[in-house]
Write a structure and sequence with these properties.
The structure holds two protein chains of two kinds. Chain A is of the alpha+beta class. Chain A has two helices and four strands; from the N terminus they run αββββα. In chain A, the strands form two sheets. Chain A has a two-stranded antiparallel sheet. Chain A is flat. The model of chain A has no long low-confidence stretch (mean pLDDT 87). Classes of the chains: A alpha+beta, B mainly alpha.
Chain lengths: 99, 411
């Protein structure tokens, strides 16, 4: 368990990163942070606990940014604080529903 | 108050009341008539008072004269209409049935409803401010042109078109319905916010005019807090923001009307009463679950009422700017955020962030880079300040940048 000071320092890193994206007018949505609670629904009404508990990786959250290319988006992702605690950022393009 | 100060003062505060009450009575189609009667009333006041001295109750005097002028006009207009066209204008009630209600309640209601009418969604933001200045603040076309750094003709045309639009859309001077009130109120607040900014940041050299603009925006904002349905958190946050900013009025210009930068201001000249008022409204704003940009800007402005350069101050300011930018991007907020970043984190980090902003052609962007590079790389600092000077448009901005260049040369 981390101390309130540590929590605040972690929070600051995230806020500064998102603030930096917003200051470049590249923020579309802060997305959401995902919790640990969840269910997985499989074919045949099979519902199991937890989001894919069998694999080590878990999706922690997402953010939507404006970028001219995936490369530019990857450049933005280099500042993501998750990288400092052993996490990865996966950069993906979004395909609009009507195309 | 001296007589020569009293009339302009009454004009600022009473003109809109007379126009609003009359316009509500006549309908928005006859807005010019309401303006004419109000202007005539003040003309008569300045002539009569100069000769006979001040009446016992100048405001009551104005209301009586405005009432009589309205009745006279309607009488004449009725005769005129009957003689020339043979039928009456239906929109204007005849003299017999007219009741000109200049009670405090009707005045307040009419003024607030007039604010909503002017801020009708069909009117462009620019025209809303123009109309607001003309009708709600009693500014002359020349003064508006001065505030906008434009000319009389352009402003007159803009006002004319806006009034036409109000007529076309048949905008009523009434309370918006419950359902549309929040959104309409937001437009009204945007108008007041722009009105205040026009005064606070305007490039106009006329300091008195600019101060008046800000005071009028505050007065109108205050009216909104006095009425239950519009006394909502974001309205209070906006008023709080205006109080904090205007607390530095006396400190931000010198006797030659030149801008004095925040860092160089004499804090003894800051108005503590306005700061306290700002805190009062900020507390009132701290409820509900909607965090508006006004809340965030007011909170930033609160931190700036304490001049001491502490880590705590700049860290808070930085986080508030981060949140503000997440709600709404603006180049100014992006620049200010980067400045706060340099104070809270480090100049090196802020330089990297500033280079990402890419606000080329914005003089403030280069001024910021000039500031950040000072002491880190003075050659680059000078390059940026020169670019800032190149893109600066107003004399006040050029003066400020030249001041920074001189300081850097002495380094």
């Amino acid at each position: 368990m981390s101390s309130p000071e540590q929590m605040q320092a972690i929070m600051k890193k995230w806020m500064d990163w998102i603030g930096s994206i917003a200051a470049q007018d590249k923020l579309v949505s802060t997305g959401a942070r995902l919790g640990n609670e969840g269910k997985t629904v499989k074919p045949g009404n099979v519902v199991t606990d937890g989001p894919y508990v069998e694999i080590k990786e878990a999706l922690g959250g997402f953010i939507v940014v404006k970028a001219a290319s995936v490369e530019e988006a990857a450049e933005i992702a280099k500042g993501c604080p998750i990288l400092t605690v052993g996490g990865n950022v996966e950069v993906r393009n979004i395909i609009p529903m009507n195309s | 108050m001296l007589q020569e100060e009293l009339i302009p003062h009454l004009f600022r505060t009473e003109y809109r009341k007379i126009v609003s009450v009359l316009c509500k009575l006549f309908g928005i189609a006859h807005i010019e008539l309401a303006e004419d009667i109000a202007s005539d009333t003040f003309l008569q006041a300045s002539e009569t008072w100069a000769l006979k001295g001040l009446p016992q109750n100048p405001v009551a005097w104005l209301y009586t004269v405005a009432k009589n002028k309205t009745k006279d006009y309607l009488k004449r207009d009725t005769l005129f209409q009957q003689k020339i066209t043979g039928h009456l204008k239906q929109a204007i009630p005849t003299e017999e049935e007219i009741e000109i209600d200049l009670s405090g309640k009707n005045i307040n209601d009419s003024q607030l409803q007039m604010m909503f009418a002017i801020c009708h969604p069909s009117i462009s933001a620019e025209a809303q401010i123009g109309l607001g200045l003309r009708i709600l603040c009693g500014f002359g076309v020349e003064e508006i042109a001065d505030a906008f750094l434009s000319n009389k003709e352009t402003i007159a045309k803009r006002l004319y078109r806006a009034k036409e639009k109000l007529r076309e859309e048949k905008v009523k001077i009434e309370w918006p319905g419950q359902a549309e009130l929040p959104q309409r109120l937001e437009t009204v607040c945007t108008m007041l916010y722009l009105l205040f900014n026009e005064g606070y940041y305007s490039a106009s050299q006329n300091v008195t005019l600019r101060k008046d603009l800000c005071l009028e925006a505050m007065r109108l904002n205050y009216l909104l807090t006095e009425y239950e349905a519009t006394d909502v958190p974001f309205v209070n946050a906006l008023l709080s923001l205006m109080c904090f900013h205007s607390s530095r009025f006396e400190a931000r210009t010198n006797s030659r009307d030149e801008i004095i930068l925040y860092e160089e201001q004499d804090t003894a000249l800051w108005n503590t009463e306005l700061i306290m008022q700002g805190e009062y409204y900020l507390n009132k704003a701290a409820m509900g679950n909607h965090l508006s940009k006004y809340h965030l800007e007011a909170a930033i402005a609160w931190w700036h009422t304490r001049k001491t350069d502490t880590q705590e101050k700049w860290e808070n300011v930085l986080q508030l700017y981060n949140q503000l930018l997440m709600i709404e991007y603006s180049p100014v907020a992006a620049l200010n955020r980067t400045y706060a970043l340099s104070k809270a984190n480090s100049k090196t980090e802020a330089i990297i962030e500033a280079e990402k902003l890419q606000l080329s052609q914005n003089h403030l962007y280069y001024a910021l880079l000039g500031n950040l590079y000072t002491g880190v790389d003075n050659t680059k600092a000078m390059e940026n300040l020169n670019k800032a000077l190149h893109f600066a448009k107003t004399n006040a901005d050029k003066k400020t940048i030249n001041h920074a260049i001189e300081k850097l040369e002495q380094h």
